[in-house]
Structure formats: C-alpha cells, structure tokens
Amino acid sequence: MNPRHLTLHQLRIFLAVAQHGSFARAAEALHLAPPTLSLQVKQLADTVGQPLVEQIGRRIYLTAAGQALAQAAADVDERLRRLAEDVAALRGIEKGSVRLAILTTVKYVVPKLLGSFAAAHPGIEVAMVVGNRGALLQRLAANQDDLYILGQPPDDWDVVCEPFADNPLVLVAPPGHPLARERAIDPRRLAGEPFILREPGSGTRATMQRFFDALGVPLRARLEVGSNEAIKQTVAGGLGLAVLSAHTVGAELALGELVQLDVQGFPLLRQWHIVYPRGKRLSPAAAAFKDWLFAHRDPAVAPAAHPVPAAARRARGRSAAPASTARSGATPPPPPHPPA
Ligand code: PGA
C-alpha cells in the first residue's frame, strides 16, 4: 500500500467508523450521507489492499488491517490536535479546547464550576461527556479526552491520578422505613431487603457489591436502574433501598424525600480523581482547567479535609491506593480491564 494515497478526510471517516462501530452512526456523527461514507471506506480499503471491516449482523467489526489503520488515524488526529494547541499556546492559554469526561456522580459537582471557568476564559471551549466507570475507562484507554474525573483507575494503568474530592456512598431508604430510626444497624440485617442497583460497569455498584460480598451478605436485587436520578425516585416510591453517592442525594435528604440509614461501615468512602494518561502532554487550556478545578472545588469535599478512619479505608477498597500514582513511561494506558 502507498500511504501517500490516503487522505486525511478518509482517515477521519474511518476513525469515526471504528469509534461508533457502525456506518450509520459514524455518518450521522460526521453529517455525511451513508453512501458517501461507505464509498470512502471502500476506497480506503482499495488503497490499503485489504478488507478493513467485517459486518456481522448490524455491527461492524474491524479486521486486523482495520485496527492498525484506526490506530494510525487516532495518532494522526491526536497529533493534529496538539498542533492546533501548540499554535494556540503561542497566543497564550486563552484559546483552545478541553475535552472532559466525568462520572455520573461527578455531574452533581463539577458542571457548576464550568460556568465560572467559561466566564473567566471565554476563548476556551469545554466539551464534557458523562458516563459510568466502565465507559470512562474505555474512553481513557482510547485516549479520547484530555481529563477524566473518576474513582481509582486500575493499579497497573500508566496514568497520572490526582485525588480531587471525597465521594462518600450512603445507604438510602424511603421515609418511614422500619430501620430509619435505628442506629448502628448491623449490615447483615439488610440481607432480605430489596435493593435498587446501578447498572453493571458502575463504580458505585461495584463498591457496594464488594462491601456486602466481604461480609457474606447476599444482596436481593429488585431492580437494576442506570441512572442515579431514577434510582432516587424508585427508592422514594418505596421499591427498595439503594447505595448512592452522597453528592447525588443532598437535596432529597434535606427535603425528607429520602432517609439515610445508619448502617455500620457506611458511608463507604471513595474518592474522585483527576486522571489522564501519563504520556499525555496537557494543552495549556487543559492545564488551566485542571488548576481551576482544584482551586475552585468546595473545600468541604477536598480529600485532605477529612482524615479517613481505618474501617472506612478498608471499605473504600481500591480507592485506598496512594494519593498519586507515580509510574514511569510515556505510553497511554493499556486496553480496558473489566470495570471494578
Ligand atoms: P459510577 O461512579 O457509579 O457512575 O460508575 C461512581 C464511582 O466510580 O465512584
């Protein structure tokens, strides 16, 4: 194959196909007509001299050549983005863009800070995606964003990881629940209670599961719901108990729509971290945004504000890892592990 015959346009199209796993969704994302997109991918395959994709059912799978091409396209895209940032940096931090990916629970805290950042730096665009732990780890492995706010990333990932805020998980019940008035409830008494669980891939779910598994308490899952908001409504409606980030339930607890149960071992203490691949060179805009987040976070939630008791550290599980992992090397993180 002669790489000179590849065009940037084709590489961008192929990257979108690889990221979306579908011609139709890639065409939609790029505002292209599906036949135009298919034609470009076909021409690209002719240039490469090998098939790039296989279609099984409605899904598109990349062949080995397709995967190699998608990686090259991602590298080129990242390099051009850095070029744009370098050019912007020559004019100072006031121009540029930041791609931020945050946990579903973080959206109760961080978006508020975006407004003041945007007002102070009108030339910087911030694009934000919200997802659960599993989704964010996949984005991190694919180097899709500048900064991530998530729990503790897997220990063997080569990333910079700075503790940003405490994320206590609390056990909530509908008001009037028989356990609502009790103190220091033994968690084993919750064995028969129906629970509303987050979806697989959620760090909140994995943490509560670890806590109850360690005690040998089987959880009775009544319903699986992929949104903190919907879980709150379901619990308030009397369908069961749930473990949620305290950041998500402040208003409902204050209004008495939910009550927090005083269960031994709770709150489960987790932390949010600001994370990015160790080899990544943060653009001036991204570095300015990171500094802004640290400078403007609510001091009450900053990790250093609370000494963590030993029992809570144990419950925190993997989140109890050192404050900042300092590992050598300059490679992006390895492919995603099963979310923990
Ligand atoms: P999640 O986030 O439950 O939305 O994945 C919480 C966490 O990982 O701490």
Write structural notes for this entry.
There is one protein chain. The protein has 340 residues and is α/β, with parallel strands linked by helices. The chain has 3 domains: 3-73, Winged helix-like DNA-binding domain superfamily/Winged helix DNA-binding domain (Arc Repressor Mutant, subunit A, Orthogonal Bundle), CATH 1.10.10.10; 80-166 and 270-308, D-Maltodextrin-Binding Protein, domain 2; 168-269, 3-Layer(aba) Sandwich (D-Maltodextrin-Binding Protein, domain 2), CATH 3.40.190. Helices cover 39% and strands 20% of the residues. It is built from 11 helices and 11 strands. It has helices spanning 8-20, 23-30, 34-48, 64-89, 111-120, 133-141, 203-215, 228-236, 246-255, 284-296, 310-316, and strands spanning 53-56, 59-62, 96-103, 124-131, 147-150, 159-173, 194-197, 220-224, 242-245, 259-260, 268-277. The strands form 3 sheets. Strands 3, 4, 5, 6, 9, 10 and 11 form a 7-stranded mixed β-sheet that branches. Helix 1 (8-20) packs across helix 2 and helix 1 (8-20) packs across helix 4. It is globular, with a radius of gyration of 23 Å. The relative contact order is 0.15. The site of 2-phosphoglycolic acid has 13 residues, from helix 7. Residues 103-105, 132-133, 150-151, 167, 198, 202-204, 270 line the site of 2-phosphoglycolic acid.
